[in-house]
Amino acid sequence: MPLNSSVRENGEIIVTSGDRLTIETAADFSRIIREALEVSNIVSLEFEPAVEFDITGAQILCSACKSAAQSGKTFSFHGPQPQALADIITSSGAERSTVCKHNNNSTCIWFGGAN
User: Fold this and answer.
1) Is-contact 25 43, C-beta < 8 A?
2) What is the pLDDT of residue 2?
3) Crossing angle, helix 26-39 and helix 55-70, to 10 degrees?
4) How far apart are CA 24 and CA 42, in angstroms?
5) Which residues pair with 101 in a beta bridge?
6) What is the pLDDT of residues 28-43, one digit of tens each?
7) Which residues of the chain have pLDDT under 50?
């Protein structure tokens, strides 16, 4: 299943991860998230259960979250966080249990805290 996005009645954009958020899909993933944040104040990511992740996918999540926060927008996820993301966070040492200064001093929902 490829990456895609849809708009809810309230204007929220839901981006579906597809089966890979890796270096091979980085350009499309980044573009879709960027376009969604340009037109909506609320963008959420829904993960396919068996999505494959690499560090590039994780970096795009972090960058999108920072960009959204700096623009007064929200970038979050619906449903469970996939094991592949948890694994890449752990193996790269990216766990965060403190607030993120780029995310309005909130605990990071992607790399720790509210997971």
Assistant:
1) no
2) 67
3) 10
4) 26
5) none
6) 999 999 999 999 999 9
7) 113-115
